Amino acid sequence: MLNVTAMSTGLLRVEPTSSSVLINNTITASSTTITAIANVSSSAENPTVENLPENVNVLLVVIKGIIMGTIITTAVLGNMLVIASVRRHRRLRVVTNCYVVSLAAADLLVAMCAMTFNASVELSGGKWLFGPIMCDLWNSLDVYFSTASILHLCCISVDRYYAIVSPLEYTVIMKQSTVGCMLGSAWVLPALISFIPIFMGWYTTKEHLEYMVKHPESCEFRVNLPYALISSCVSFWIPGLVMIIMYYKIYKEAIRQRKALSRTSSNIVLNSVHHHRSSTRHHHHQQMLLQAAADTGTSIRQQTKSWRAEHKAARTLGIIMGAFLLCWLPFFLWYLTTSLCGEACYTPDTVVSVLFWIGYFNSALNPLIYAYFNRDFRDAFKDTLKSALPCCAGHCWKTPSQFV
After folding, report:
1. Element containing residue 324 per DSSP (H, E)
2. Pure H helices in 195-282
3. Residue 103 or residue 259, greater confidence
4. Where are the domains of the chain?
5. Rounded CA gap, 209 and 239, in Å?
6. To which H or E segment does residue 181 belong?
7. What confidence score (pLDDT) does residue 5 get?
8. Distance CA 366, CA 101 (A)
9. Are 109 and 160 in contact (CB under 8 A)?
10. Residue 35: its pLDDT value, please?
11. Which residue stretches, if any, does this entry annotate as coiled coil (predicted)?
């Protein structure tokens, strides 16, 4: 998301002292002997001290590369599968999935435009290889697409709130124009805290801008306090608060509706039995009552089915929101804390890298949540993969597709 840590090399250089210079500058034979012995001892120990860290560093780079490559690949393929499945299957073309497809596009671009460059910096030992203009572009894209992904989750929570709390007004409120405005805002607002302040130089100090000119091999993103407060509020704290409020209200409404449906079903059964016992003299009237009860029962079952579908979707999206908080909360807590207390809150580069990639992992996690918790998406994924991988059609999935 926001690349706050220093990832430059060559900031501190210590020139090595030649052993021949030490020997030539010695005055007495005893000091020359001591220096020579020290140099021999050092040369005997250096291979062990130098080779072991080098081997360990290579191993760590390989492990980091595998982890980062797995996250990037999962995010790219998973979100492409979401987009292809919704486009391929009419059953998934509902209002809520407009947000889901747009979210998948944002997560896909996070993987392609943010994760890849971050991985190159991590695997090259902190060096930036693409020049100063690309550095600003990368930082802008990182902030932009990560914020867009988070704002999409906020839009989804608002959509689910109206679908469950105000179902009769949902189709009136969530018209195509409303959905378009919400999605447009999710794509436009991130530009206000990414491209504009970064390319204008408003996000940092004058000293840091001068440092970046002198060190093109570095792509640090040191922010000033006003930018840190504004960007973190727009990117995380405000959307996160909205999501928590929406899903709390959804949870309360779900409990209320469940109790109401339970009471309604019980009353229908009791009323049917009562009318059946008290209407034995009027057979025709009895048949009418039973038919009315049957019709009412059918209506209740339809309402229950619709209620369960809406709440199943809300549960899946609630799990997505929980995953979002778990992935991004540690990063933004660190981001805001270090911006407030400065150098006093030093954090090792390794910890910062882990926080970054936990946040990035959220973009790869959303398609996995759909596949595991939502049966419609799970079946659509299978059907899409069958068509993309015909060689596996007869072995991986035995049941025919129910989609059109």
Report:
1. helix 283-341
2. 195-200, 206-214, 225-232, 238-278
3. 103
4. 55-269+297-387
5. 31
6. helix 176-188
7. 47
8. 11
9. no
10. 41
11. none
Chain-wide mean pLDDT for the chain?
Answer: 78
Q: Which range, of 280-294, 328-342, 368-382, averages the lowest pLDDT?
A: 280-294
CA dihedral 225→324→184→189, nearest 10 degrees, is: 0
CA nearest neighbour of 212 among 148, 133, 101: 133
What pLDDT was estimated at residue 271?
Answer: 52
The predicted model scores a pTM of: 0.74
Q: Which of 270, 337, 365, 348 is nearest to 71 (CA)?
A: 365
Q: What is the DSSP string of 53-83?
A: HHHHHHHHHHHHHHHHHHHHHHHHHHHHHHH
Kindly state the average pLDDT of the residues 305-324: 71
272, 293 contact by CB (below 8 A): yes
3-state helix, strand, coil in the chain (%, to 5): 85, 0, 15
CA distance 144 to 192: 9
User: In a 10 Å sphere around its CB, with 0-12 CB exposed, 13-18 middle and 19+ buried, how is residue 95 labelled?
Assistant: middle
Q: Are residues 342 and 376 in contact, defined by beta-carbon separation less than 8 angstroms? A: no
CA distances from 201 to 38, 62, 221, 225, 373 (A): 52, 36, 11, 14, 44
User: Which residues have CB under 8 Å from 328's CB, separation 6+?
Assistant: 1, 150, 236, 240, 359, 362
Beta strands in 90-174 (DSSP E): none
**55-269+297-387 has which fold?**
Rhopdopsin 7-helix transmembrane proteins (1.20.1070)
89, 403 contact by CB (below 8 A):
yes
Cβ within 8 Å of residue 254, ≥6 positions away: 164, 311, 314
* pLDDT tens per residue across span 253-311: 888 877 776 665 555 544 554 444 454 444 555 555 445 445 545 555 555 555 565 56
Measuring CA to CA, which residue among 1, 231, 236 is closest to residue 113? 1
